[in-house]
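Submission checklist for the structure archive. All mandatory fields must be present; incomplete records are returned to the submitter.

[x] Identifier: Helix-turn-helix domain-containing protein
[x] Organism: Candidatus Kaiserbacteria bacterium GWA2_50_9
[x] Residue count: 62
[x] Sequence attached
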Amino acid sequence: MDGKIYRIAEAKKMLGVSERSIFRYIHDGKLRATKIGYWRISNADLNRFIADQTNIRSRKSK
């Protein structure tokens, strides 16, 4: 298991979205994050979010 932890700025670059979008995903419960001084997102949670988004897109295209 990769224990990498990302900050919001890193996650937004990886996902290609705005910081506001990241916070919206967190607020909506789509992306798990923990506030430790700043918001932090684990590698596992980021990968889970990416997989969920991929599944949503593939279901819509059917």
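[x] Structure attached
Curator remark: Helices lie at 8-15, 19-27, 43-60. The mean pLDDT is 90.
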